[in-house]
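Checklist before submission:
- one chain only
- standard amino acids only
- sequence pasted in full

Submission:
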Amino acid sequence: MPPKLTRIADFEPDKRIQGFYRIKEIHQRITRTGQPYRELVVQDKTGMVDAKIWHDAAAFKISCSVGDAVVVQGVVSEYRGRLQLELEKLGLATPEKHTEYGFDPTDLLPATAYDIEEMWSGIVEIIQSMENEFLRKLVENLYQTHETKIKTHPASMTLHHAVYGGFLEHIYSMARVAEKIAAHYSADRDLLITGVLLHDLGKLVELKPVNEPGYTDEGILIGHLVLGRDMAREMMLKIDHFPAELRLKVEHIILSHQGKYEWQSPKRPKFLEAMLLHMIDEMDARVNMLSAAIEQDHEPGAFTNRYNYFKLNLLKGPLNIDDDDDAFPA
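Returned file contents:
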């Protein structure tokens, strides 16, 4: 009988586990007392967790690399309200050796909860509804060229939508919001939608795929804003009679979408559609991060711990309040 495997979503403190996971990060660390230890981040499709090698860390041989599938044994512990895994055994997992024990590589990639083809169809429908022929042609050409990566890439390394299909999920969510906001604020709908669909295009070059997480050399040295601007500029120059003013606006909306210089934007948004894009992008990312913080929290009670991106005790469940109580006595 194959051994019982434990998904990361089913981790509990003091539970001894074994399972198959994928390495997302590997680090050599030093404790406050100067002792070496190894810190890894491992993941499966249900989540990710820090994994520690405390004892004999210098002698503990890791013959695996970031992106590898591994077979693991260890004990789950809790630190500052977050679960972590204390590793006892770790080795490379391969289909040849481990399929009979329940190893399936597709179970190790965290993925969007939404149907990729349905989201793609929704994006195509939005593109086809664009009335500006130059913007529609620009987006059509770029999305046809990069369809596979758009469907499979993460939207970020760790912060938000950092999963298989996360890029598409983020863009599709933003596009649906943008359609409603454009009408409310009398913005140029097609320009705003173009900004939404193209603003992160450079991440298809900046980031490696989910199964080998990390940044490319171009991502490290140039970054996704300039990479995306260059991709859009190259395509616009191939479209006959593309208006110069419109080209400049498209380039600005891509370069300014981070919103702040300290967030690596070379320019801040300088017209309505660029400002709206920045706000929609920020909102969608933060909502995703909030949802993930709540989902990954294991604190009892109605609130999360403060060890999340927001550094807040986030409300995650019903409050223990009796509706019959007089909360505001006269």
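Reviewer check: The mean pLDDT is 90.
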